[in-house]
Amino acid sequence: MSTGHQSNHGSERPPSVLEDRPGPHRVVAAALVACGVAWAGAHAVDIWNVRDAARWPTVPGHVTSAEVTTGQFMYPRRQSVSRCHIRYTYVAQGRALTGWRIDWRRDSQHYFPYHECGYYRVGLPVTVHYDPTDPIQTVLDPSLPPSLVVGLCLGVAVAIGGLALFRHHPLPPLPLEGEEGAEEGDDQA
Predict the structure, then answer these.
(1) Contact between residue 105 and residue 140 where contact means Cβ atoms under 8 Å apart
(2) CATH classification (class only), 57-141
């Protein structure tokens, strides 16, 4: 027996309440898009900062401390992580300041911290690139690290994967405004 109502899928049964809910694939797709855009956006901001830092004025400075510190890192398993921490002093806009950033990598964990701290030994003269609007923001090496480009590409790929998942599992079409009113009028007649 036909009810005279057509569902969005062309069958003659009324639409189920469950059909209107977003499935887990849609939630995963939305999460992938959001994470990918956030990841790519963060790396795009850093790439923009690198571009700006290459034009910053430079001043001479010198390294005042360089030490390797080792700490415990718990994820995914307990392991020791060594990092090179340096400090350098410089004078910008008539103020004596201290900086710590070597380059634009997100963290100070480098693959060869002992080599890096050996290179930036105490007393070494360095060229400091500083932001003229905020002289505390500095960097010694304003070149673009490959990890930023890789991070940007991975973020874009994750967002595209989320969009592809949306396309593979599209939302059901919404009913037209006149459809529901016309059906109610047919039932009353």
Answers:
(1) no
(2) mainly beta
Alpha carbon distance 57, 169 (integer Å): 52
Given this model, what pLDDT does residue 18 score? 45
* Sheet strands side by side (includes 95-99): 95-99, 79-92, 58-73, 125-131, 134-139
Query: How far, in Å, CA of 138 to CA of 142, rounded?
Result: 9
Sort residue 137 into left (φ over 0), alpha (ψ -120 to 50) or beta: beta
Identify which has the larger pLDDT, 51 or 175: 51
Are 91 and 160 within 8 A, CB to CB? no
pLDDT value, residue 189: 47
Extents of the domains making up the chain: 23-54+143-171, 57-141
pTM of the model: 0.60
Residue 14 has pLDDT above 50, yes or no: yes
Q: Taking a C-beta distance cutoff of 8 angstroms, is the pair 70, 81 a contact?
A: yes
Exposure b/e, 116-147, CB count within 10 A at least 16 = b: bbeebeeeeebebbbbeeebebbbbbbebbee
